[in-house]
Amino acid sequence: MSTQLKIAIGADHAGFAYKELLRDYLTDFEVQDFGTYSSASVDYPDFAHPVASAVENGEFSFGILICGSANGIAISANKHQGIRAAICWENELASLSRQHNNANIICIPARFVSEELAKEMVITFINTAFEGGRHASRVEKISC
Questions:
Q1: 49 is catalytic
Q2: pLDDT tens per residue, the chain (144 residues)?
Q3: DSSP notation for 79-132
Q4: Alpha-carbon distance 51 to 26, whole Å?
């Protein structure tokens, strides 16, 4: 793992505990916390958009977004032209989202995965390379 890799992380209230856990777990990386900073009810787009913008503009290599189902944060993040945010609830999905879709933000449904699985998926996501090849032209078609 590289200390050079920069990761943006954010969550709503439902993902707050997992965000804290993952931020503290990723000690081998430079991680910037975009909030939320408590479990008080908040609106997920307020955290998804800043993380997506930071990844989209190249300031960060990857993003991690967490909410209860991961749907709202993924929808919000995917509004950004350069973002490919993938909802992952199994480790294989984290791997395939990178290999086949060149995803740059992993979206984790905190209400549906364990803490250990969340950590495993994040490491898999970060360490898996995009395969390119036949997948490259498909990914290019996403941004029309």
A1: no
A2: 445 899 999 999 999 999 999 999 999 999 999 999 999 999 999 999 999 999 999 999 999 999 999 999 999 999 999 999 999 999 999 999 999 999 999 999 999 999 999 999 999 999 999 877 888 888 888 876
A3: TSTT--EEE-SSHHHHHHHHHTT---EEEEETTTS-HHHHHHHHHHHHHPPP--
A4: 17
Catalytic residue among 67, 80, 88, 107: 67
From the list 13, 49, 80, 100, the catalytic residue is 100
Question: Which pTM does this prediction carry?
Answer: 0.95
CA dihedral 66, 71, 39, 94 (to 10 degrees): -20
In total, the chain counts a number of residues equal to 144
Place of tokens 């930071």: 54
Structure tokens at 30: 């430079």
Distant-in-sequence, close-in-space partners of 10: CB < 8 Å, separation ≥ 6: 19, 33, 34, 35, 36, 47, 48, 50, 51, 63, 64, 65, 66, 73
Instruction: Please indicate whether residue 100 is annotated as part of the active site.
Output: yes
CA separation for the pair 48, 114 (Å, rounded): 21
